[in-house]
Amino acid sequence: MSDAPRSVRLWLLLLAVLVAAMVIVGGATRLTDSGLSITEWDLVLGALPPMSHAHWEEAFALYRQIPEYHRVNAGMTLSEFQGIYWWEWSHRNLGRIIGLAVFAPLLWFSVRGTVRGRLRWQLWGLFALVCLQGAIGWYMVSSGLSERVDVSQYRLALHLSTALLLYALIVWQFLSLSGSRAVAAGSKLGGWAWGMLAAISLQIVLGAFVAGLRAGKTFNDWPLMGGKIVPEGYFGEPSRFADLFERVAAVQFNHRIGAYLVLAFAIAFAVKCYRAGRDTRRYGASLLGAVTFQAVIGIATVMAAVPLWLGLAHQAGALVVVTAAVWSVHALSGATRPARHPRSTAALSAVPQGR
Description:
Helix content is 68%, strand content 0%. The longest helix is centred in the first third of the chain and has 35 residues, at 78-112. By secondary structure, the chain is an all-alpha fold. The chain contains twelve helices and no strands.
């Protein structure tokens, strides 16, 4: 194992689980149209839900002032409001928990000297990213409180991208401190692994636009869209570049094409890994398996018009794909270091570290 204390590695693993849960709860908040139910942001007092009937009526009155209530949920009862309120409240409180789960242990590790030097600053950088993500979350919610009946798909894409960046960085740090075995044969595959991660990241951003426009609720046939290869309404009249991100037909078509390209890339990557040797095969196989499963879930989700459980499965699948991609990049790009054992030092020095 690495020289990093076991407590630090377990802490990072816990953070990865919490961020993954945050992404999934965020998906549920979006799919249940709950994201605008809390119209104010109070970092401290907002952690408490309404504690009395009068407090619930006050929160409901604030919600009745925004366009979503008037145009979408007019006539909603207090009981129905409570149903969407709890999703958003849970999402925000999980964010608070993550902030504390990063800050308190990291402060303890820093004061005791458990983490030092570059690692300490990298971990504090994670805390800064958590704070930034909270600000982006409110920036996203605020876009739906004045004129729109939903949040901006651009801000949603930014919010999801930042969450997955945070998750990927935590996984990367965990792998770095776990002392995983180096893959000497992976030097030629590092570029491929980075390319896979870039393609997957772009595909997730495209998926965020689908979510932001609720595009999965339309064109529920496959492999065609509305009986056509390129759906009607891809561009407006006159056509604009922004149509690629603002028209339902366009964002769903782009996400579908992106999925096909990522799957083809994953197949090629798996073949490359298989041919490179036994040590690299697991990375290609795991990433191809994750991408294939995610593609199947995606097809099922759109054909079923995005039921909650399938939508959340698709969101969780994205986390699995990102995990497999980060693991592959970490191992094949030279970031992984061999564990140091006294009896193996001489042997390691005699083994060529690549060609």
